[in-house]
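S.,

Sequence below, as promised.
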Amino acid sequence: MPFGGICHGSNPCRTATFPQQNEVPSESDTNLAQNPAESGSRKVKFPQTIRHRKAEATIYGKSPSYPRYRLAYRVAGRRHLRTFATYGEAKEAAERIVRELANGSQATALSSGQASDALAAFERLQSLFVSTGRRVSLLAAVSEFSEATSKLNGRALGEVVEGYLSTVATVRRKDLTEAVEDFIANREPKTKAQDGKQAQLSAGYAYQVGLWLRDFAKTFPATAIADLTKEHLNIFMAKYAKHSTKSRNHYRQTVKMFLRWAVKRDYLTPSHRLLEADGMATELADAPETEIYSPTELRALLESADAELRPVLALQALGGERLQECLRLTWQDVWRVPKHVEISSAKSKTRSRRLCEMGEALRQWLEPYRECSGPVFPKHRDTFQESLSSLLESLEIPAKRKGLRHGFCTHHFAAFGNENLTAAQAGNSPTIIHQSYKGFCTKSEEEKWFAVAPSKPA
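The prediction came back faster than expected:
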């Protein structure tokens, strides 16, 4: 059968010519000038429909005004048009396209350039998966890019990303135990006094914080800070359910301080939200009861104390100094300003200088030490605590937390009825004085307290 012939049943084949079709392309032809048109003409009935199952494509013949064969088909509701120099090329492409369409493929909607871009995009996404483990579809990538670009007001996405990364730190994985040791070591220099100034941190407080944080790290071995969850913090705080409310709040504040440090070191993201854990919620604690010694107990302590212990007890009870301040004082501080004890900024808890008035009873207790020099108490704080505990036990007097200083503030406030005056003497705030020491003793008890002087002249 000659090429292009059409047979019907047993009838002999015959050739015929038909009018040319003049379709308007719905899509620009990118292959129009690639190959020259086929020379000569072949007798084929046009338009010719190529079908495979429900898919079909139509081939249109050449016309005087358009010397190429055209192939038309629809993909996803859109009409596509391609041109070919020869009928054979057009028919071969039509058969391939209808098979692909019948199998559900929409790749035929892509031009050669679009297909190349799609393949390159898939390669880039595969490289992303290999390097990060994150799998992203081409649709998701394009959608995310389009949405982001629409919000940038003409700025390039890469430029914005670079700007963002310049202000955001990358979290580094750090083992919890190692981080705790780094934190403790980082604070150690701050416990050392330099150039005669007070250390930034109390050595005792820094030691206690270290104990708490080491216990925290021990609770979660082989755990990175970045892997901590709210449940970890809840488990840690549950260990201290039987401790006092004040103690639990101290543990919470210590962990919060450590986590803030971890953020600064880029071991934890600023948006970690760990502090939202139920166990990290600060509890309302009752104010501790103000315990004071009686004037009789104070006299017994002062008269029974040894020469090293006595001035520290007197300064707390009759001068209002804190224990830690007394342990920093020298005898030069006691006698430098007449009738006052000078607490310099380097030795004050509040880091502000103040003068504590030296009453007559206090002066009499300190008079035997007028020619002394050096520290008022030359030994360690632990030694003082051990000596005081032994003294209380020997006198059968119950120990009272800060009972000497509390006794001074209580009786001084009762004597003058002025929280500002008592606050200035004790180095405290008027609000605390009013809240903690009001109404704990009478006028007669105040007079007895400040009348506790040595029974014998020095």
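The first helix runs from residue 87 to 102.

Coffee later?
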